From TrEMBL:
PANTHER family tied to this protein: PROTEIN PAFC (PTHR34580:SF1), PTHR34580
Keyword Amino-acid biosynthesis: no
Organism field: Streptomyces omiyaensis
Domain HTH deoR-type: 2-57
Alphabetized UniProt keyword annotations: Transcription, Transcription regulation
Name by which UniProt lists this protein: Helix-turn-helix transcriptional regulator
Tree of life domain: Bacteria
Length: 316
């Protein structure tokens, strides 16, 4: 977003001094031409920024100029990490700090840029959970986040789906992930992933929790997601599917359709789609009604056909 880049240019020049357009473009991952446009926008906003030509040239701020981005407290700085997700900041117990940090950021901007940011804020809203997702309460989330920030081991009572359902665990928090409106804790030993809303009791201990050097939370999450989907879809089904049903496919099914789909004369597509289990596939394909025909495996086709016969008799 342009307003974010403008603020980044200001902070880079304040902290590093003179920088060339190429250096700024590299830091911001944009083109040099974009940097030129952003510098013009800062000039128009009254920022005392000027450039020197030549081999040792570059952009710099007028000597002594500082933005008013000062006075941030630690919790406010932490809240800025969640600047795009105010609801998430609130769930983590940082809602008030988030609001204070936003006010300080806004006050630090030149008037024209501040007005531009206000207009953008009024035009964008992030609502992460899906339409049919139920609200999940995670009463221990703020304490989990606090233990994570302070690097403390937590003792939890955790409710899982298999027996015994309630188990005691001693966990070293590595990170929190917000996925589709639900919070997950990545923690040692393992590390493994835990749903925060399934924690039914929690104690923050005095034991120090160390995150291994080089641990990358985002990379770990991506790898765990790939492994989850690989284990989830271990079967396949050959189907004929109508254009209407094909347009509604998402995720692995949509990718498989694109990779294996073969158009047929009647406009339908024959494809091999990944499935979890016979039970799950049976329910999934029945939900598509007459927009899909299961060709294989025979067990799945026979089961769908048997259900269709029962329904036909019931509604005769």
């Amino acid at each position: 977003m342009k307003s974010s880049r403008l603020l980044s240019i200001l902070l880079l020049l304040e902290t590093r001094g003179r920088m060339t357009a190429s250096e700024l473009a590299g830091e911001l991952e944009v083109s040099v031409r974009t940097v030129y446009r952003d510098v013009d926008a800062l000039h128009a906003a009254g920022v005392p920024l000027y450039g020197d030509a030549g081999h040792r040239g570059g952009y710099r701020l007028l000597a002594g100029h500082r933005s008013r981005l000062t006075g941030l407290y630690a919790r406010e700085a932490e809240a800025l990490v969640l600047a795009g997700l105010p609801a998430a900041a609130d769930e983590l117990g940082l809602g008030g700090h988030f609001a204070d940090a936003q006010l300080k950021l806004r006050a630090a901007l030149p008037a024209p840029l501040r007005e531009h940011v206000d207009r953008l804020r009024a035009r964008f809203h992030i609502d992460a959970p899906g339409w049919y997702a139920e609200d999940t309460e995670a009463p221990f989330l703020p304490r989990v986040a606090e233990a994570l920030r302070e690097g403390r081991v937590i003792a939890v009572r955790y409710r899982r789906w298999k027996e015994p359902t309630d188990v005691d665990r001693r966990l070293a928090p590595y990170g929190l992930v917000l996925k589709a409106g639900r919070w997950y804790l990545v923690a040692a030993p393992g590390p493994r992933t835990y749903r925060v809303d399934q924690i039914i009791d929690l104690t923050v201990t005095d034991e120090e929790a160390e995150v291994p050097a080089g641990f990358d939370l985002a990379a770990h999450w991506r790898a765990s997601q790939r492994d989850f989907h690989a284990r989830l879809h271990q079967g396949e089904a050959v189907v004929r599917i109508s254009p209407r049903a094909a347009a509604g496919l998402t995720g692995a099914a949509a990718r498989a359709l694109a990779e294996t789909g073969v158009p047929e004369p009647d406009g339908w597509t024959r494809a091999t789609l990944p499935v979890e289990s016979t039970d799950h596939a049976h329910a999934t394909f029945l939900a598509l009604g007459a927009e899909v025909e299961v060709l294989a495996p025979a067990e799945l086709r026979d089961r769908v056909a048997a259900t269709v016969r029962v329904l036909a008799e019931r509604y005769a």
